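note to self — DONT lose this again. spent like an hour looking for the file last time. sequence + predicted structure for the chain T wanted, 423 res
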Amino acid sequence: MSLEIRVPQLPESVADATLVAWRKQTGEAVSRDESLADLETDKVVLEVPAPANGVLRELKVQAGATVKSGELLAVFEEGAVASAAASAASAKPERAAPKAGPAARRVIEESELGPTAIAGAAAGGRITKSGAVQAAAAQVSGQSPSRVQPAAATQPAAPAAPAASTRPAASAQPATTSAPGAGVTAPARAGLVDRRVPMTRLRARIAERLVLAQSTQALLTTFNEVDLGATQELRARYKESFEKKHSAKLGLMSFFVKAVIEALKRFPVVNASVENNDILYHDYFDIGVAVSSERGLLVPVLRDVDAMSFADIEKGIARFAARARDGSITLEDLTGGTFSVTNGGTFGSLMSTPIVNAPQSAILGMHKIQERPMVVNGQIAIRPMMYLALTYDHRIIDGREAVQFLVTVKDSLEDPARVLLGV
């Protein structure tokens, strides 16, 4: 029986998707739920699964095409047997390792990595996008794959680097190239390579939203610093028993999220957004927590956080981080949000000015915890300090509210009992 393979229904906020690659070819046998193709949207990479055991008979759309919800992708024959040619082709070793995610597979195919390079890109039995990128770069430069050290999965991804040919060696009369926008020429240098790589849809979407926020909001950042000694002591005291009871690690993020909720309740305009000439107040607390993935920064949303326990928050964040790493995060996870928290301290940032995730009106930036000499009760003491940054839309949030919001977060973290007692 012939079945039609169509683009899954995309949310209203996503207009279309790009067919990144076909995982199976015509005439090839496919098992039920096996991935047929990868679709990349502005936010996530979606896999198109096989509806049953059978054979992919005809491809209606080629890789690289832009498709919309419900568009016909291929014709699938349920229960059919693979052709001899397809069976022979499928018996050959695949270029990509079985545990390579969609983003990594795309780099492998674009760069035409060989089996040895792919093996060098694997980290802990899994090929990450950053590992594939480094293997591709090594292949271009002629390095041995053994010299390529795959990056950790949690590190920010470098852009995909397809193979590029080197320039011919310079002759006695050096060639010249036009300098962009200059109208003059500059001598080409032998052995150097320029690589032009299109932005992924996610990176292009991130760029679009950041520019939109900068151009449509009156952004201002206020800073403060917090002594995390009391929070660290409380966390150290109950860390083991917390993990034993809840099967979740007690991190600092749950303390920050709880402190943010307390501050948002006192200053509801920080939780609001601008809609035309109105201020839209949100009487609920959906907090976006920025997580790093191989494809870029994602901001999944914890919903109704005011009703969540510390354990619920920690489990939710851990679940989002795992989904971001393996590429299984959903559009629903990324939709909505009334306020966001980002932790640049994970990568060593001491201070920064985060950009608001529009249409939200504010974002809290956490940073690196650093021991510094501080005056405490007239005495100099070494304390674990962190700079906090609140970027906010000055159109609806005044400086007084922004500063008092940040002070409330600071007070809750320096005396965690305030959060528990609601004072």
